[in-house]
Amino acid sequence: MPKVSYSLPDGTVHDVDVPCGQSVMDGSVRNNLPGIVAECGGSCSCATCHVFVEDGQSFFDEPTDEERELLEFADGVRPDSRLSCQLILTDDCQGVRVTVPDTNG
């Protein structure tokens, strides 16, 4: 099971085992971690699950046009910004690290 390391806005880091097939967003929401609001429940329509992908961006598919468009309206976007609902974990995703900005929701 892949382990995702979440760096939260309060400076804490939480390592969470997230089953393959679930998203980085799911791992955060199911473990009650603050910062990923996920208002739309993972349907790629709100951008309240914005994260910065650290060492692991190559683990995931390229962003879709829909994801890119939503990120255009998110606060604090950087080149490593992604929507965590679109980051689906596989067995190859060992050691994924994301930073949750203090701008979601």
Automatic annotation (TrEMBL):
Its cofactor is [2Fe-2S] cluster. This is 2Fe-2S iron-sulfur cluster binding domain-containing protein. Keywords: 2Fe-2S, Iron, Iron-sulfur, Metal-binding. Residues 2-104 form the 2Fe-2S ferredoxin-type domain. CDD domains: fer2 (cd00207). The lineage of its organism: Bacteria, Bacillati, Actinomycetota, Actinomycetes, Pseudonocardiales. Belongs to the adrenodoxin/putidaredoxin family. PROSITE patterns: 2FE2S_FER_2, ADX. Pfam families: Fer2. Signal peptide: none annotated. It comes from Amycolatopsis acididurans.
